[in-house]
Design goal:
Blueprint: E1 3-7, H1 11-22, E2 26-30, E3 42-45, E4 48-51, H2 60-69, E5 80-82, E6 88-92, E7 95-97, H3 103-113, H4 118-135, H5 152-157, H6 167-171, H7 178-183, H8 203-212, E8 215-217, H9 223-234, E9 238-240, E10 245-251, E11 254-260, E12 265-267, E13 270-273, H10 277-283, H11 295-298, E14 306-314, E15 324-327, H12 332-340, E16 351-354, E17 369-377, H13 386-403, E18 414-420, H14 422-427, E19 461-463, H15 474-491
Parallel strand pairs: 1-2, 1-13, 2-9, 6-15, 13-19
Antiparallel strand pairs: 3-4, 5-8, 6-7, 10-11, 11-12, 14-17, 14-18, 15-16, 16-17
């Protein structure tokens, strides 16, 4: 039985542990926090339950396949609820749009709000389906050398990459209305980027929503983490909470094990790093052992934006407001530029609000609600003084949520609250520079140009999570774990 040490019990680490434990490996996961899930963990405030980070499932077939791969049925462990309409998009008081996964409902909604654009939507579905079918294979194979660009999956995808144009420009092929283009490009925020800068490749993100729908897990997405952790333990895997890793042990260019913060050492045949990539390189890897990813080189890379978070338990149910709402800035281009380029706090930010209690009555006591608020903001390369700014910014956000979001008199109904700024993401969750979506997803940091699944710095070391291929976001994080563990299984001739 070969032994594997996994640093971090986030979604990537747990998925890796699940696959390897079910294949007979001795799995040991070391987690610095006192909970599993990383940025996908649960937050409890009194009787209220929140997801810390991701709030819905996209590409559920990815995680279904991983469970199937190890002889399990995902639906024996969690209950999925499809969300329709997928979200409410507020542009101004005269333009409020409700996109649907259902094609006929979507066409009617486009006709209601953006008459004359219906044919563009049909063209979008047709063209983006072909693009998705060609590109998806590129996300399912590892990239470790230039010759990987000659694999059939990449060759077939090449004419559809749209790497030379922006995401926003790709949507201009289908729609004329500015707001409608934004309705299919704001999803760049899922990877922490600007739709005006993100490669056109990422038009498949909105296509995935419109083609396959989005889902809520009853009790919160964090439930999948607990299911995985239980399965790992049932298969003799070990998860050590409150056990931070101080240093990766490297000998002759090979990862041999770990030195824990408590002074103990543990050794293994393989080490999988699931900690935030740049944090791991600058905090648990000795600088003498690393070449390509030294701090001075890491700081020259492009990183995603950060997020300002409010988790509110309120003694009211806003049953007239959908599960997901996005409140767009009055000047979205300016807002995005402030987040990604000029690195300043917006006077008029865009805001995401989850009102999950109208779908899931397990998150709050009867007659009460969980309100989750996320505001994209600059990462900590901005040097914003969050201790000085956070309360003023919180009030601005609450004003907008009450006025634009329709959450009337919200402040007076708050029973529990928690605020998270980029400072907390960096100092409490150990996210490098508070960049919650990890390394940026510009072309120069994708595929072979992203840190490799089989890590190029050391032998016997593998990466999972948003900092490696295929990238950030739950589906691709799950896929990173599948790719990395497949490399180990293939190496050991298991299956």
């Amino acid at each position: 039985m070969k032994k594997v040490i996994i640093i971090g019990a986030g979604p990537g680490g747990l998925t890796s542990g699940l696959i390897l434990a079910k294949n007979g490996y001795d799995v040991r996961i070391y987690e610095k926090q006192n909970y599993v899930g990383g940025r996908n963990s649960e937050i409890k405030l009194g009787d209220y339950h929140f997801d810390m980070g991701p709030t819905f499932f996209l590409m559920k077939d990815y995680i279904e396949e991983i469970f199937k791969k190890v002889g399990l049925n995902l639906h024996d462990f969690i209950e999925l609820q499809k969300i329709e309409p997928m979200y409410r998009l507020y542009f101004n008081e005269n333009t409020i749009f409700y996109p649907y996964n259902d094609k006929e409902k979507m066409l009617k909604e486009i006709k209601r709000v953006f008459p004359g654009e219906e044919n563009g939507y049909l063209k979008y579905l047709e063209k983006e389906q072909k693009k998705y079918e060609r590109l998806i294979g590129c996300l399912q194979i590892p990239y470790s050398k230039i010759s990987d660009f000659f694999k059939k999956q990449f060759i077939k995808a090449l004419p559809f990459l749209d790497a030379h144009v922006s995401l926003y420009d790709v949507l201009g092929r289908y729609f004329n209305n500015e707001f409608l283009k934004l309705s299919f490009t704001f999803q760049a925020k899922y990877i922490g980027m600007s739709p005006f800068e993100a490669p056109g490749t990422f038009s498949i993100i909105s296509y995935l929503e419109h083609a396959f729908g989005i889902y809520h897990i009853k009790g919160g997405l964090n439930k999948i983490n607990h299911a995985m952790a239980d399965i790992i333990k049932e298969n003799n895997g070990k998860i050590y909470l409150n056990n931070g890793v101080k240093e990766l042990i490297i000998e002759n260019g090979e990862a041999k094990g770990i030195l824990l913060e408590n002074g103990e050492k543990d050794f293994a045949d393989y080490v999988i790093i699931n900690a935030d990539f740049a944090h791991a390189m600058t905090h648990i890897v000795n600088k003498k052992d690393i070449q390509k990813y030294k701090k001075e080189k890491l700081d020259k890379k492009t990183y995603s934006c950060s997020t300002f978070m409010l988790y509110l338990g309120v003694n009211k149910v806003y049953d007239n407001i959908p599960h997901h709402s996005i409140l767009f800035s009055g000047d979205y281009r300016k807002n995005v530029k402030e987040i990604t380029t000029t690195l300043q706090l917006s006077d008029d930010p865009s805001i995401y609000v989850q009102n999950a209690s109208i779908t899931d009555d397990t998150l709050a006591p009867k007659g009460k609600s969980t309100i989750y608020i996320l505001v994209p903001v600059p990462n900590n390369f901005s040097n914003i003084d969050w201790e000085k700014e956070k309360f003023k910014f919180r009030e601005k956000v609450l004003d907008l949520v009450e006025k634009r979001g329709g959450f009337s008199d919200l402040r007076n109904h708050i029973e529990e609250k928690l605020m998270f700024t980029p400072k907390e993401w960096e100092e409490k969750i150990y996210v490098y520079k508070g960049a919650t979506f990890n390394l940026g997803h510009n072309i120069s940091q994708m595929l072979i140009f992203r840190p490799h699944n089989e890590f190029e710095e050391f032998k016997n070391c593998y990466l999972v999570g948003g900092g490696t291929h295929p990238g950030s976001g739950l589906p691709t994080i799950y896929e990173s774990a599948r790719i990395s563990t497949d490399l180990i299984l293939k190496r050991d001739k298991v299956k």
